[in-house]
Write a structure and sequence with these properties.
Protein name: Protein trl
Helix content: 10-25%
Number of domains: 1
Strand content: 35-45%
Strand order of the largest sheet: 1-4-5-2-3
InterPro entries: TRL-like
Shape: elongated
Largest sheet: 5 strands, antiparallel
Distance between the termini: 66 Å
Order of helices and strands: HEEEHEE
């Protein structure tokens, strides 16, 4: 009975902590991540301005910031969006940041 309770507790702990720093996907590494992935692009001809907005997550318990496309566009004084990218940074899923980068005019 003790082994069953121990196994159940261990399983519950693994399930609880598995999403600690965000979703582990194709663009995120388990130990360390520092990459930029494309989100979308339009047929606009050029991009003379760039704006960004960042969110931070600590231990999956505290999430701060506004990393929306609207905030990034506003920070870069952009009214016509050419492309949107996402920059992901993570250390062990303990500390993660996501930056939305908007390019346009």
């Amino acid at each position: 009975m003790k082994k069953f309770v121990l196994a159940l507790g261990l399983g519950a702990s693994l399930a609880f902590f598995s999403g600690c720093g965000g979703v582990i996907g194709a663009e995120n590494g388990l130990i360390f991540s520092d990459n930029t992935t494309p989100i979308t692009a339009t047929s606009s001809s050029s991009a003379s301005r760039e704006g960004s907005a960042t969110c931070t997550n600590i231990l999956g318990l505290v999430a701060l910031g506004d990393c929306s496309v609207n905030t990034a566009a506003s920070n870069g004084s952009i009214s016509q969006i050419k492309s949107v990218d996402s920059k992901n940074f993570s250390i062990l899923g303990i500390y993660t940041t996501k930056t939305t980068i908007v390019k346009g005019n």
